[in-house]
Design brief:
Elements (H helix, E strand, L loop, with lengths): L1 E5 L2 E6 L10 E6 L4 E10 L3 E9 L4 E10 L4 E8 L4 E8 L7 E11 L1 H16 L3
Amino acid sequence: MEHRQLGGNKFMVCHSRNQPHDSISQKLYLQKDMHYTFSAWFQVSEGEVPVTAYIKTSSSYKFVGAVVAESKCWSMLKGGFTADESTPAELYFESNHTSIEIWVDSVSLQPFTQEEWNSHQDQSIEKVNCLP
């Protein structure tokens, strides 16, 4: 893993990968029944390659989201999940194409309570209903 800069943009690069899950990861603590939204930008060194985000806990793996990342073009992955328990966890990315580099930028994981989620939904519905 290394930091790179291209045209003023700094990002992380996962290279010399031997296993699909060889990538950057972030340790975190999940809170039971919280909803989490996730986003990140991905690019690969060559071709078009599926990249998947997962949350790993001591008892399970949770799918967060997936995107087909391309070379020479940043692709946004958006996803989310609900935590089943309060527990330490690890966010990581994987791709079965271990010969390519995975470039990662602007990773965001945001927690929401059910009430906050409902409020956001209600506000979005009101905006749509107010359109001419």
